[in-house]
Amino acid sequence: MTLPIPKPGLVVRYGFLWSHEQRSGAVEAEKDRPCAIILAVRAAAGGAVKVTVAPITHTPPADESASIRLHPSVAKRLGLDSQPQWLRIDELNRFTWPGYDLRPRPDDPTRYEYGMLPGPLFETLRRAILARQQAKAAIRVAGRD
To answer: Which of the chain's termini has less CB crowding within 10 Å, N or C?
Structure first.
């Protein structure tokens, strides 16, 4: 099984740890889910790559400004199911690539990735996260190293 190259916009299967899970003392996620890589940075030449991901969830957001709804055609192109799905922008995980929480896809255990978000959708995601940071709105980032 070959690991994909981590790059912004790539959707991977990952054991995403929500802040409520972390507050309750969990160190492992309750379930694996698709997550979009929003940032992948190599600290130094030859060093480790730090990756930040945003989760994709079926749970409708309590605060609509904290999520971006995936268009069904995008979900279908990525190989996700047909239920409504949202990209969350208020909770992120950061980890060293590939990390122990990167998981094979349940429908194809030879792959970790689903594919790339369309460019305009990734740009919407990126801008929404930056706007939330600039407004000092809560973004919870769990470190998973």
So the answer is: N
